[in-house]
Amino acid sequence: MRRCLWLLVFLCGIGTAQAAAPKTVLVLGDSLSAAHNISVESGWVYLLDLRLGNMVPKWTAVNASISGETSLSGRNRLPALLQTYHPAVVVIELGANDGLQGLSLPSLRDNLAAMIDLAQHAKARVLLLGIEMPVNYGPQYRDGLRAVYTDLSRSRHTALVPFLLDGVALDPSLMQEDGLHPLAAGEPKVLDTVWKQLQPLLH
Questions:
Q1: 20 closest CA partner among 63, 70, 55, 72
Q2: Who wins on pLDDT, 5 or 26?
């Protein structure tokens, strides 16, 4: 009888611990999510982790972003990340470096589609973060890039932020001198843009 009681207490303890374990948001991105040229604590993903930690039940953010990441390298890294962290939500912020390197839009679409499929197969909800190219890339490429994100979001049934730096990119007071990355002052606004589409995925 005593042994059965001990086993019941033990199993209940395991159940409680599992219930209390925070769920994970995995962010797979490039320098726009890797706090380029600013402190990690100023980056939007770190700020997201703080916000998630105040939720009940708690969530946590894992930042797997690497400066210079392309959609292909992200695609290659994602399976191991899914196996390691078992995220409930995957945020994909890739494509900027593909564009800056002039890589083809069909290849970008194929890589993003594969990442979405991998995440959804692992039972994770997906948020796709779109980016914009500088105006000197021309309307055809820029329009095609926008279409990649919107079409994938529609066909794969993901949440979408059309432009990660909306309200930030055109404000010189919020951008670094390179014109590509936000200053620390712009990162809370980036988080607010992401949060509008991310929050519904947490419930």
A1: 55
A2: 26
